[in-house]
From TrEMBL:
Pfam families xrefs: CoA_transf_3 (PF02515)
Family annotation (PANTHER family): ALPHA-METHYLACYL-COA RACEMASE, SUCCINYL-COA--D-CITRAMALATE COA-TRANSFERASE
SUPFAM superfamilies found in the cross-reference section: CoA-transferase family III (CaiB/BaiF)
InterPro entries according to UniProt: CoA-transferase_III (IPR050509), CoA-Trfase_fam_III (IPR003673), CoA-Trfase_III_dom3_sf (IPR044855), CoA-Trfase_III_dom_1_sf (IPR023606)
Superkingdom of the organism of origin: Bacteria
Region (Disordered): 370-389
Name of the protein in its database record: Fatty-acid-CoA racemase
């Protein structure tokens, strides 16, 4: 953290686990916030790549000593983030009602799948379940095939971590006017419902008549992927007439540009474009369309990103285990942090009200697991952490 970053001076206690909460606090840390992960117990460790730029301590909140130390840190904190099922934070003494009496300026965020109330609030779930309840999963995938989730991007990261970060920043901004904090109830189902605003409005119309059909589902000839001669793919997004005209011309298909928005022409256009793109390999097509407004790009696999000129131009240090800190700021740059330097965590904990003796008792190794569970649960334990049954 440097004093020139946007969230410099903001202190965050992160009690969350798994993916959505740690992604939220990673975003805050990238912007300069001092983030302290509070671990302990058997609740699962944050995903390793989401731990960058954070400090780690272990507190047993089921003990009076653990709660006392948390209370002292809360006195100096700006934000507390948790991802327990509703009611658990209160049982641990980490709920907003109690903590706001210690620090009225505290912004607390509860990040859950279903929210703090409602019939499903106490149910367990994962990204795929939240997509299903929010009506998003029912729009993904091919007609006649099972709905297919887009990894866990939409609920965990978009409707979860990003929504929570947005809510926290809004509450911090409002605190500047009112002088008091508030509780943010960030539910992944709610986040997905919001992100589906346009698809919901289009549902049942020619734009999105049903799952697997419509302009943006990958079935329209002007908006889909095409296999190339080498078995790799290009993505075509030539929706507007001028873009499709550029595509048609640059493929050498003549000056008579067909109506690419007429569904009756879709089968013939699809066969034509499939045949043309299969005639050359992916990188030849990428070079052919370089500088063009035909909206044709290579479909890159993750392992290719570090060599792509656009990615490297904007993010020279890009690596799959070190995604960029975003967005860009003109004066207060975001920056991905690393493991704390020796003594750095103790100094940060002092700003949270802990003494050096307190810090010595609670500081956890940065690479230590904060629990016995990992996520996804299919991940095999590292040999050094495997236990005998």
């Amino acid at each position: 953290m440097t004093s020139s970053q946007a969230l410099a001076g903001i202190r965050v206690l992160d009690l969350s686990r798994l993916a959505p909460g740690p992604y939220c606090s990673m975003l805050l840390a990238d912007l300069g916030a001092d983030v302290v992960m509070v671990g302990g117990g058997r609740t699962g460790a944050p995903i390793p790549v989401l731990r960058r730029g954070k400090h780690a301590i272990e507190l047993d909140l089921k003990t009076p000593q653990g709660r006392s130390l948390l209370d002292r840190m809360v006195e100096h904190a700006d934000v507390l983030l948790e991802s327990f099922r509703p009611g658990v934070a209160a049982r641990l003494g980490a709920d907003h009602e109690r903590l706001s009496r210690i620090n009225p300026r505290l912004v607390s965020c509860s990040l859950t799948g279903y929210g703090q109330d409602g019939p499903l609030a106490q149910r367990a779930g994962h990204d795929i379940n939240y997509l299903a309840i929010a009506g998003a999963l029912g729009t993904f995938g091919a007609t006649g095939a099972p709905p297919t989730p887009p990894l866990n991007l939409l609920a965990d990261f978009g409707g979860g971590g990003l929504l929570a970060a947005f809510g926290i920043l809004a509450a911090l901004h409002e605190r500047e006017r009112s002088g008091v904090g508030q509780h943010v109830d960030a539910a992944m189902v709610d986040g997905v419902l919001s992100m589906m605003a346009m698809p919901f409005a289009d549902w049942g119309t020619p734009t999105l008549p049903r799952r697997g059909a419509g302009a943006l589902t990958g079935t329209m000839p002007a908006y889909r992927t095409y296999e190339c001669a080498d078995g790799r793919y290009v993505a075509v997004g030539a929706l507007e007439p001028r873009f499709f005209a550029a595509l048609w011309s640059e493929l050498g298909l003549g000056d008579d540009v067909p109506d690419h928005l007429d569904p009756a022409r879709f089968p013939g256009l699809t066969r034509t474009l499939e045949a043309v793109f299969r005639g050359k390999d992916r990188d030849t097509w990428a070079a052919h369309f370089a500088g063009s407004d035909a909206c044709v790009t290579p479909v890159l696999e993750p392992g290719e990103l570090a060599a792509h000129p656009h990615v490297t131009a904007r993010h020279p240090d890009f690596a799959l285990d070190r995604v960029p800190a975003v967005p860009r700021f003109s004066r207060t740059p975001a920056a991905p942090g690393g493991a704390p330097a020796p003594g750095e965590t103790a100094a940060v904990l002092a700003s949270f009200g802990l003494t050096p003796d307190d810090a010595a008792r609670v500081v956890a190794p940065h690479d230590a697991a904060a629990g016995d569970l990992s996520w996804p649960p299919i991940t095999r334990p590292h040999p050094h952490t495997e236990r005998n049954s």
